[in-house]
Specification:
It comes from Phaeospirillum tilakii. This is histidine kinase. The chain is an alpha/beta fold. It contains 13 helices and 10 strands. The chain binds ligand C2E and magnesium ion (3 copies).
C-alpha cells in the first residue's frame, strides 16, 4: 500500500531488514526536505485558568503535515532531529513561527493570550538561544511577556553556571520560563529555586494518577504547594476529566491544559475555538483583555 511504502521510505517501521542507521538517515533527509518544503506546522492547545476556566494561553505543538502520510506527531521526528542536530534549524523555525502567530493573534484581538513554546535540550545548549529569541521578538514586534519558553529538568540540571547564564539572558528579554513535564526528571524543586523559572508544568503521568490512588493526589499536592512556596505558578498537563480538574482546583493548581478543554488544534481551528469558547456561557469571558 502507499501508506506502507511511505512508512518504509520514511523509516517509520520496525524491521530487522532495515538497520536503525539507514532508517535514521532516510528520516534525516526527509526532515530536511520537509523544512524546505514548508511541511511543518504549529498546532495550539488551549490553556485555561482553573479558577474560572478563562482562556489564558496555548501551547504551540509542532506537526509535520506530510503530503502522503497526513499529520505526523512530534514523537516520530523530534528524537531524530535531536540526534542529528536538525532540531537547531527546526527549533529556530518553531520560534519564528510562534512569534508570527502571536503577532497575528494580537492583530485579530487576541493580544492577551500567552504562547508556550517547547525548547529542546540541544537547542538550549548549542544554539545561541537568547539571540534567536531576541531576533524573533524584534522581527515580529510582539510583547515578550506573551512568550513562554518550556524547558525540561534535564536541561536545567546539566551544567550549573552555563545554564544559569542562558536562563538569565532569556529572562532579561522579558519572556517567561516554564519547566515542562515536571516530576519526570531528577531535579528537586528546592534546587530549581536557583533558576528564574516562573511556571511548573505538572506532567501528565501525575495528573492521570489523580483519579487512581492516594499517592497520585499526594504527589500533585506536594508539587503544587512547593511551587507556590517558591512563587512559581503551576499548570497541569493532560487533564482529561472533570474529576481531575476538580481535584487540581482543590489543591490550588493555577491552570490546566488537556483534552477536557480541547486537543491541540491547527491555527484556524484554534481561532475558531477561541470564538466558540468565548460564546460558551459557563466558561468566562474570552478573549482576555490586554495586560491581564
Ligand atoms: P509536551 O511539551 O509535554 O506536550 C504535551 C503533549 O501532551 C502533547 O503531545 C499534547 O498533544 C499531549 N496532550 C495534551 N493534553 C493531553 C491529554 O489530555 N491527554 C493526552 N493523552 N495527551 C495530551 P504532542 O503534541 O504529541 O507532543 C509531544 C512532545 O513533543 C511534547 O511534549 C514536546 O516535548 C515535543 N514537542 C512538541 N512540539 C515541539 C516543538 O515545537 N519543539 C520541540 N523541541 N519539541 C516539541
Ligand atoms: Mg511542552
Ligand atoms: Mg509536557
Ligand atoms: Mg511531555
Amino acid at each position: 500500500s502507499v501508506k506502507r511504502l511511505a512508512d518504509i521510505r520514511l523509516g517509520f517501521f520496525d524491521s530487522a531488514m532495515s538497520s536503525a542507521v539507514a532508517e535514521r538517515l532516510t528520516l534525516e533527509r526527509s526532515i530536511k526536505a520537509a523544512l524546505k518544503a514548508g511541511q511543518f506546522e504549529l498546532f495550539f492547545q488551549p490553556q485555561v485558568r482553573l479558577e474560572d476556566f478563562r482562556l489564558v494561553g496555548a501551547e504551540a505543538l509542532i506537526r509535520w503535515r506530510h503530503p502522503e502520510l497526513g499529520i505526523i506527531p512530534p514523537d516520530k521526528f523530534i528524537p531524530v532531529a535531536e540526534e542529528t542536530g536538525l532540531i537547531v534549524p527546526l527549533g529556530t523555525w518553531v520560534l519564528q513561527s510562534a512569534c508570527r502567530h502571536l503577532r497575528h493573534w494580537s492583530e485579530i484581538g487576541l493580544g492577551g493570550l500567552r504562547m508556550g513554546v517547547n525548547i529542546s535540550s540541544r537547542q538550549f545548549r548549542e544554539a545561541d538561544l537568547a539571540d534567536l529569541v531576541a531576533e524573533a521578538i524584534t522581527e515580529t514586534g510582539i510583547d515578550p511577556a506573551h512568550l513562554d519558553l518550556e524547558l525540561t529538568e534535564s536541561m536545567l540540571m546539566a551544567d550549573g553556571e552555563g545554564t544559569l547564564k542562558i536562563l538569565r539572558a532569556l529572562a532579561r528579554l522579558g519572556v517567561t520560563l516554564s519547566i515542562d513535564d515536571f516530576g519526570t526528571g531528577y531535579s528537586s524543586l528546592a534546587y530549581l529555586k536557583r533558576f528564574p523559572v516562573n511556571t511548573v508544568k505538572i506532567d501528565r503521568a501525575f495528573v492521570r494518577d489523580l483519579d487512581q490512588d492516594e499517592d497520585g493526589r499526594v504527589i500533585a499536592n506536594a508539587i503544587i504547594s512547593l511551587a507556590h512556596s517558591l512563587s512559581m505558578k503551576t499548570i497541569a498537563e493532560g487533564v482529561e476529566s472533570e474529576a481531575q480538574a476538580a481535584m487540581l482546583a482543590r489543591h490550588g493548581c493555577d491552570e490546566i491544559q488537556g483534552y477536557l478543554i480541547e486537543r491541540p488544534l491547527a491555527a484556524d481551528d484554534f481561532t475558531a475555538f477561541v470564538a466558540r469558547y468565548g460564546a460558551d456561557g459557563g466558561r468566562g469571558p474570552v478573549p482576555p483583555r490586554e495586560g491581564e
